[in-house]
Amino acid sequence: PQTQLHLENAPKEVKELAQTFNMMLSRLSQSWEQERQFVSNVSHELRTPLTIVHGYLQSVLRRQHNLTEMQKEALATAASETEHTIRLLQDLLDLARADSGYLHFHIQPCMLNDLVTEIVGMAEQYSERVINIEASDIIQVKADRNRLKQVLLNLIDNAVKYSAPDTPIFINLSQQGQEAIIQVCDQGDGIPLQYQSRIFERFYRVDESRNHATGGTGLGLSIVKTLVEGMGGSVSVRSRLGEGSVFTVTLQLHY
Ligand code: ADP
């Protein structure tokens, strides 16, 4: 690793110390790599059968005329739990890939307005919420289309989860200097200031008891950060407890 110590001209004891340090470092990085590989393999192996199980559950649920209420409820719970687990596995897989540098981005010019309209249409359907888009310009960015969709879906998903159904959600598109600015705004729970820097960490959730019902994994925002930074952009949050949150993503403009 680049961080190895090179102390050729140092006294013997210091050289020995440096050798021991280097040995420890290379063992550590080996075991980190093994851990990443393990997470990646397990996620991959579990995702395939679970996707099949989910497919079967969905197809039984669709033809549910001869099921009792209890059976329907049990199947619906099983379907939503498998869906949740599949998402968790996909997130783990993406993060493991990002850690080992295997997360590739296909950066190309993207018409931001069209992409946001498409994603908002999808999100409105499954969330049954109204999501308003405010855009003063037609904006083109340099991004990986699918990864950008994943980013926006995650942020919209959170805005939906952490705000009351009768409150509005806004997506604001603008540009400043060399950057496009995408803001996802909700008038929901908000996030206390002391937690705002931690929510982008893996598995971090502000309040487990408050969040339990929302069924998240605590990985969404760390994925968002990894993906946005991988596309050369940044993500930040501004929020006040009880008033709502604004997540801001910046990306490079394409001229
Ligand atoms: P989760 O799967 O828990 O939603 P995320 O990584 O997406 O995981 O978010 C981490 C935590 O940040 C959430 O558990 C929640 O406490 C907080 N959070 C994220 N987005 C919002 C939001 N729009 N409003 C309030 N809290 C939020």
TrEMBL record:
Keywords: Kinase, Membrane, Phosphoprotein, Transferase, Transmembrane, Transmembrane helix, Two-component regulatory system. The lineage of its organism: Bacteria, Bacillati, Cyanobacteriota, Cyanophyceae, Nostocales. It is found in: Membrane. GO terms for molecular function: phosphorelay sensor kinase activity. This is histidine kinase. It comes from Chlorogloeopsis fritschii PCC 6912. GO terms for cellular component: membrane. It is an enzyme of class 2 (transferase). Residues 1-33 form the HAMP domain. Residues 41-255 form the Histidine kinase domain. Photoreceptor which exists in two forms that are reversibly interconvertible by light: the R form that absorbs maximally in the red region of the spectrum and the FR form that absorbs maximally in the far-red region. Its EC number is 2.7.13.3. The chain holds residues 231 to 485 of 485 of the full protein. It catalyses: ATP + protein L-histidine = ADP + protein N-phospho-L-histidine.
